[in-house]
Amino acid sequence: MKNPKTIIGVGLLTFIVILAVIGPTIAKGLTGSENPLSIGGYRPYQLPTAENLIGTDGDGRDGMAVFLSSIGPSLRIGVIAGVIATAIGVTLGFTAGYLGGKIDIFLRIIIDMVLVFPILPLMLTLALLIDRWNLDTLAILLGLFGWAFVARVIRPQVLSLRERSYVDLAVLSGQSTFKIIIFELLPGLLPYIGYSLSLSIVGAMLAEAGLQIIGIGAGSTPTLGLMIGKGIREGVIAVGLTGQMLLPAAMLILTFLSLNLINLSLDETYNPRLRRLVEDKVS
Amino acid sequence: MDNLLRIQDLTQVFGTRNPNYAVDRVSFSMPDEPSILSLVGESGSGKSTIARIALGLMKPTSGKVYFKGTDIFTGDRKWQKQFRRDVQPVFQDPYSAFNPAYRLKRVFNIAVRNFDLAQDQRKAQARIEESLDSVGLDPDDVLDKYPHQLSGGQRQRVMLARLHLIRPRLIIADEPVSMIDASMRASFLKLLVSFRDNLGISTLFITHDLTTSMYLGGRIIVLYKGRIMEHGDTPDVTRSPQHPYAKLLINSIPVADPSQRWDSMLPASVDSANRASMNRDRCLFAERCGQVMETCWQQEPRVLPQENAVQRDVACHLYEKTLENN
Amino acid sequence: MTITLQIRDLSIGLQSTKKITQIISHVNLDVLPGEIIGIVGESGCGKSTLAIGALGLIETPHVLQSGSVLLTLPDGSTTDVVRSSPEALRDLRWRHIAYIPQGSMNIFNPVMRIRAQLTDTLVQHGITEREAIERVTHALHLVNLKPSVLDQYPHELSGGMKQRTAIAAAISMEPAVLIADEPTTALDVVTQRMILQELVKIRDTLGVAIIIISHDMGVMAQVADRIAVMYAGRIIEVGAVTDIFKAPLHPYAQALLGSILQSGHETDQVEILEGESPSPWNYPTGCRFNPRCPHTMDRCRTEVPDLILRRASHQVACHLLDEKVSNHG
After folding, report:
1. b or e along A265-282 (b: 16 or more beta carbons within 10 Å of the residue's beta carbon)?
2. ipTM of the complex in this document
3. Pairing with A43, which of A25, C51, C63, C91 sits 20 to 30 Å away (CA)?
């Protein structure tokens, strides 16, 4: 595992997670208050100074404090939605590819229906109807619609892996179906599952950002999306407070980058031909 | 005594709208004594499909496969377990024969475990090393390696080592040497022959390359579009083929001797484009046959034993006529 | 006698991020007018790289490291194919030197009829549409295909017919040299015989020299006049087909011939060649066959044997033959 991609990817992700966890504490330190996000703590729309590194937002809060407090909630949305989407998507995609026949046809229809489903109007409607509309609900819903993308990636991979000679060899060696699924097919799927997971996580984080921009937010919990959304609505770039858009956007990109690097290194571990290329380069 | 393997009226049809008769009422058997039988045919002849069915990997549209007297698709659990141990494959593609995520020792360990091949770890290791030695591989060069670290030829030998370890009654080998270099083929085939002679293991050998069958000897079945055209002893069939397709096949082999070059051009009828008629109640080789007759288009020739050759079956109207005339 | 194609000291390497690895080394080969010469070797020996070198198709990541490929034009002048400009090459190709790549039955555009695909190149060389159709029809006739093929789509033709169409395309300008890379792999044995016989007929009719690249010794025995044996990027033996088959001199060629499976050979007679051909990243020093050779001497590990004329028209690159000469001389 001396692959530079693994090291950078894992390192970056660890950094992001640590930042998410200690972010609120740093925020308290920066603002010197127990409630760093209290409205009106500072004058609104102040340009960056030593005290307010990226200035203050429209609610009079220190931009950096808001940023540091937003990472955690955003990651949480991403992870909840991502895990739900990947779990459902892998299960259904695998079932369709492995069992084939009528089940496959049936599932493919379902996948297509979910893919074309207009999420936005549904979100709007639900946001109005549901009482306890909060970020977790949003995350769950994003997961419940994101699985179709995952299934669409996993299914053809299963179809192709199923035909490999080594799967036949496992059958003829007396391996149980369960063992074949876990030990023969799953390793080949891991890169795709990893890829789907990272895509789902970041996709959900971005989707939440998008929803925030059009105002279907969920209360006051700070998220990277909320910060970007506010930034757009309030036109912070024009006022010279670019940092308040740049930092959250950069964090989203970094999250995606770290997850992708880990993915690529996973692929190299499980795809021997790629591994050989890497070994040749290194030797 | 029951035959080791008996294929009876095996038929496999793919698709419903334009049904493809991959295998069309094929019947043959392999005796209990260790033997080698080659199924020879071009792509589309059905040979690989027969192999998959005989291995139990797929169920045929109709027909039966008997192993040691029992229908392989209806045997009970206990019988199935023994069947799995008794019938083992060699696949064509050494590059996908082993799961690339694991080291090669896993292949052997799984076999030992599932087939109860040894009482403890130490004995198992000894047997594995013995098997690798017997095919000319050094265990240190193989067991801890990943498949991609070995060449195609070495990987096919690992397959043979696995077979040596398991000691099945029957090996079903689907084009095992077509993807390895010519210089490695001889050693592989030699091992198959020694498996028969020294370990009593029979082989059902599927190939499109007649020279490999000739090397192995034994019996041969020539397949064309899912049907048997000729069936007999390999040296006899290759020396004096009777079916026009078998003749064409054998005469087209490029002999590696410049003093034995082809003396004539092939007739134009040999290459027909995709205009075959859908009628299957005829000889399927008719459109390419240099000796085609009226009756070949109207009636399917039956597979009949020949009188002038020992244990030879041919499906051709040319020979049916002779019988009727007698 | 003029030599149609002279390959001299040709070395081609492969560029990776860190270095250039040599694939073929200092290859010398002459192709005589109207001869069928076979280049035989196992997978990975570099024969396809030699083919692209002979055609001047050396593009990244391939790199020309040394040598020249002199093609004799109809007017008697010679031109160095590997040093020609892209425009000059475009003119040379198809007109004087043509190529049938591996798997060429798959080079056809599935949505175009054959006619346009065959006449396009000719028209690009400045030939009128009408003359192009004439030439193409004539070429199809040479490979026993009817002109009606022109109106068909590739998927309507069998594998053998597509291969023959590819050959017709290659000979439609009657080049001096035709390079066929594994022209019959993936075809069944009957179609293979047909294609090979067509190639010989073309040589007999048009006088075009044909370089056939293959791993199949049987194919070589049936159609080649001369054979060049390649091992690990080098040509190690060249001679008339009967000489190579009856009396091969290089230990590798001997082993190769010994391993042929043919009827009449008993199980014991086939010799087993141990080990594997080295890949370009692991070429041994000295004679590249030395790790597997049953007759290796100390000299073989350090000195590369030159391809030297040992008998009439029979060249071999092996130190053993020096020993034999000095023992007898």
Report:
1. bbbbbbbbeebeeeeeee
2. 0.90
3. A25
